[in-house]
Each structure stands twice: as structure tokens, then as C-alpha cells.
Amino acid sequence: MMYNNLIYLLVVILILSTTSTPDAPQFPLALALAAFIVKAGAYLLLVRRSHANNSIRHSADYFSAEQKFSILAIAFLAVDIYLLDLKYFAAQIPFAKSLPVITDFCGLLIFFGYLCLMWAAERNSYETVFGGRPPGRFTFLLDNLKTNLSIILPWLILSLLSDLLKLAPIPALQHFLASTWGEPLIVLAFFLLLSVFFPALVVRLWNCKPLPAGETRTRIEEFCRSERLTYAEIMLWPMFEGRMLTAGIMGIVGRFRYLLITPSLLKAMEPDEINAVMAHEIGHAKRYHLQLYILLFLGFGILAQTSSYPILYLVLNSETFYSLLEHVSKSGRSSIMAFLASAPMFIIMIIYFRFIFGFFMRNFERQADLYAFETLGTGSTLIAVFEKISWLSGNIRDQPSWHHFSISQRVEFLEQCAAKPSRIKGHHRKVYSALSLFLLVLALGFYLQWKLPDNLIEGATRERLAESIVQQKIREEPNNPAWHHLMGYLQQGRKLYGEAVHAYKRALEIKPYQPEVQNNLAWLLLTADDPAIIDPVAALELAKSASTLMPHGFILDTLAEAYWANDFPQLAVKTEMYAANRDPANKAYYDKQIKKFSEQKWRPPGRQE
Q1: Strand 233-236 relative to strand 247-250: parallel, antiparallel, unpaired?
Q2: What is the pLDDT of residue 319?
């Protein structure tokens, strides 16, 4: 279940980290709060109904229900973020604007609030499935929280560190953080430190205790010495009250490496079977799987870094995006953009962890199985361990998962290796070939990111987004001439002359005497490279009116251009000289214009030879 929790919490992190704080909420606080309470009540009702009447009696059913309601909690959190604007309300907390991690922490509190409702409702089912006296309600909730906190805590620490670094008054540091790879390198350094020291914190969060002195501990210590494994401690792992049949290893440095084993597994296994379990866990260390997992996590970080810019480019060039913007309010616009930018990343993340990360996890487990096989000289002992776990866990022999091959598949593979030892080298070759391909693709991602133009979202993409925003403002305030003026200016720059003329005229219909609008329209009617748009006579009338209202240099320049276009070169020169007197800072430009009016005859731009 912990592997699934990893995926769920990664999705939550992605939702929180890719969503900005909106300028205004879509709904008032009272309405948003009412919707949240109704939603939380519905969630609790559904969870209680699922666990009512002792309907869950097997571990598979218990974990299936937990999986279903964890996914529902993520969906409800997405509603809270994208629709109810949780981040806006959380941003009102003191210091939240300078420390965005506070708003993310509020999102986590909401998500874990849903999970606490689920854990509270499933406590009796837990007793039915795992037996024994269940822990107190508070203890049960706290144990579940601490288990999941070990997954989410690194991100919280990193987010806080990132916010604090951005506040540091050190120009060189700010320049480094603003660079393309500044933050990724900080993340890399953080995770390298984390991978060394974090296991010591995790064993405390999980309430692990050192394995007491005795025959079992002595035997495990002797076996580890024979395999030259250094470690900090052998810990009893009280996962699900210690009733789970599992073991693990954490830590890439011997001084901070921990061997974990649950009490139930210790009780169920014979001494030689415990050695087989330990050999499997030692195999992970000997094959550097823990270091490779860090590489795989960083691989996703690089994938996210290299794909975020192209994804944003595709979103901003998608008609779906602009169609949605037409039907949402101003406050909902940022949520739509965040959701559409995040949705492809969700898909990439699920594919990456389910198939790429999952592929390596399953095959790393096989490598660890093979290490036990080679260390013990036989696979029969490990096979006996698997069969016991299968039987004691409720006959799960043929139950596969995305992170482990099924027990039957693992047993069959060990039997094949016993019959044909060459399969062992073949499997290692397969794993390292896949890793080489992975690193090659990672390097290609680096290269593509390096080659990606910095101005990918400039030009037409930015103009299309600006057009959509102005259109939204026009829908909200149709009688505000400023938005029509801005639309005309934008479309003129994009050479959409017909739309620009229409927008300028609409602005003048609403408010007739606007010298800047008249000037822009006049200039367009004189200089557009579309013969159907050119109209020197109308341009002259507009320029005369604009110059009367606002005799600035740039408006007088338009009037001079209009005189020239209407075959009044002397008036054009005289007006341009007046413009130069009004705007001496740009005298060189006006002198160039005067020379043009004196020496050349006007031709429509679209017809010049």
C-alpha cells in the first residue's frame, strides 16, 4: 500500500506545485466553505457505507477500499484547488505571500483531513482484517499520518528551503536561482543530502525499535558480517501493528543504513528463511538499487523540467484552451490554465511511475531475489519464504502489482534460473541495458532542453493569449472603449487589419473623440499592406481631428503622412516640421520623413513596386 501512497502523494504535490494563487476567488468564502463542508460530509458518508456491517473481511478488500477513497480524496482536493480556490483563501494567512509553502501546507492539511475521515471510518475493519485489539482512535490516526508524512516531508522541507532562499538578500544567489538549472541543482543537492540522512528520521516516524538482543539478532548480525554489509541498526518494523509479512532496507551509507523486518515475518520464518529474507534485502544494497531509485526520481524531475515549457506552449496554442476561457469568469481563468497545464503532467507522471519506475522496481526485486539465490546457493529457501507469505497473507500467490512481480512469477523465475543458470546473467544484462537506454533518453532530454528556444512562448503565442484576455474583458465590459482600442492595437500588430479597423471603429462609436484611437486608425488606413484597407481620405479626416485634440509629435506625424498620401506634399513637409518642433527628441526621424515627403511620391503600400 505504501507504494500506492507514494503515487497518490506525488499527484497531490503536482496539483499544489503547479497551481498559482488566483487574484480573486470564483465564489465568496461563505459559499466555498459551504460547498467544502457538504463535500467532506459526502466523503465521510461514502467511507462509512463502504465499511458498514463488517463488509470488509480480507486484506485485499481493505486495501482496495483504501485505494478507492484515497483517489476520491485527490479528486476532492482538486475541486478545492481548481474550483473553490483554496489557495486564494490560504494566501490570506500572514506571511503566506512571501512563503508560498504555507498555502501548499494548507492544501496538504485538507488532503490529510479527507484521509483522516477515511482512517477513522475504517478502524473497525482494520480490527476485523488484521485481528487483535485495535489501537486507540487517536493513535491509529497518528500512526497513519506518520507513515505518510515520511513520503511528503522531503517536499515540504524543500519547498520551505526554496522559499527562504528566494527571500535571501544575496544578488548572486538570486541570479543563480533565476537561471535555467538553478533550482534543479538545488533540488539535486537537497536529495543527495536527504538520501544520506533521511532514513534515520523515517525509522523514528514509523516507530521502529531495535531488534532485541537474542539468538535471532545474533544470527542476522553474523549473516550481515558474512556479506560485509555495514548498517546502523536492525529494526523491528511495526507496520500495521507488525502484522504485515515484509522486510526492507533503507540508506545508501552504512552509518545511516537500516534493516527493517516486521515481527510477524520473524515469527513465521525458520532461521534459514530469515537468512533468505536478509539476503534479498542485502541484494538491494549490493546492486545499488537505493542509489538507482534516487536516479529514477531525479529522472522524473528532469522529465518534468524539460516537458513543462513545451506543454505550456501546446496549451497556449490549443483551441480547447481558448474555448474554455470564453466560458469562465476572470477569476476562473488561472484555474483553467493551471488545470490544462497540469493535466498532461499528471498523465506523464502516471505513465512514468506506473511503467518506467515500475519496470525497474519489479526487475530490481528480481535482482535481489537472484542475489539471495547466489548467496545461499539455492533458490528453494527463498521460494519457501514466498509460499509462506502467500499462504499467510490470504493466498495472494497470483496477485501482481505495478511494483512487484506476483509471487508465482517470482517462484517460477527462480526455478528457471536453477534449471538454466545463464538466465541470471541475462536478467542483469536486461536491467543494465534498460538503465543505459534510460540514461540516454535522459541525456537527450537535457540536450533538447538546452536547444529549446527561450522565446518559444513569445510572438504569436503570447499575442493569441493577449487577444483571448482582451476578448474576455470586452465581454465583461462591452461599453468600455479602452478594451476595443487595445484589441485594435493588438490586431494591427498581428496584421489582422480588418479586425483592427472594426475594433477601432467600435471604440469610436462608444466614445467618438479619442485622439489616440483616431491616430492609430488613421495610421492603419495609410500603412496597411492590404489594398482593401487603404483609405487616405478617411485617414486624413481622422488625423485632422486627432491633431486638433492632441497636437503631439507622433499624431502630427500621422497627419503629415495623410497629407502626403492625399497629394499635399507641401502641407506634409510643413506639418512634419511642426512635429519636429513639438518633439525635438526624435528630430532625426522627422528629418527622414521630411526628406521622403520632398523627394518621393506616395504609393499605397500594397502596390509599391
Answers
A1: unpaired
A2: 66
What's the pLDDT band for 431 if we cut at 50, 70, 90?
A: very high
The β-bridge relationship of strands 209-210 and 247-250 is: unpaired
Q: How confident is the prediction for the chain on average, in pLDDT?
A: 87
Q: Give how far the C-alpha of residue 193 lies from the chain's centroid of Cα atoms, to the nearest Å.
A: 23
Domains identified in the chain and CATH numbers: 1-178 (no CATH), 506-607 (1.25.40.10)
Please tell me what DSSP assigns to residue 404. Answer: S
Residue where the block lists cell 486507540: 136
What SS3 state is found at 91? coil
Would you give the DSSP letter of residue 232?
S
Instruction: Note whether 604 and 529 are within 8 A (CB).
Output: no
Q: In angstroms, rounded to a whole number, what is the distance separating the alpha carbons of residues 497 and 521?
A: 10
Mean pLDDT of all residues in 32-58:
90
What backbone phi and psi angles, to 5 degrees, belong to 210? -60, 140
Phi-psi region of 288 (alpha: psi -120 to 50; beta: other; left: phi over 0): left
Coil, strand or helix: which one is 248?
Answer: strand
The b-or-e profile of 235-244 (16+ CB within 10 A means b, else e) is bbbbbbbbbb
Q: What are phi and psi of 508, to 5 degrees?
A: -75, -25
Residues sharing a CB contact under 8 Å with residue 451, sequence separation 6 or more, in sequence order: none
Name which of 260, 303, 315, 316 is nearest 444 in CA terms.
Answer: 303
Which of 19-23, 293-297, 516-520 has the weakest average pLDDT? 19-23
Q: Which residues contact 91 (CB under 8 A, 6 or more apart)?
A: 21, 97, 103
Burial of 420-448, coded b for 16+ CB within 10 Å and e otherwise, reads eeebbeebeeebeeeeeebeeebeebeee
Give the integer Cα–Cα distance in Å for 502 and 508.
10
Give CA–CA dist 239/264, Å, rounded: 10
Confidence of residue 5 (pLDDT cuts 50, 70, 90): confident
Residue 180 has pLDDT above 80, yes or no: no
Length of the chain: 609
CA dihedral of 128, 66, 277, 214, whole degrees rounded to 10? -50
pLDDT tens digits, 360-391: 999 999 999 999 999 999 999 999 999 999 88
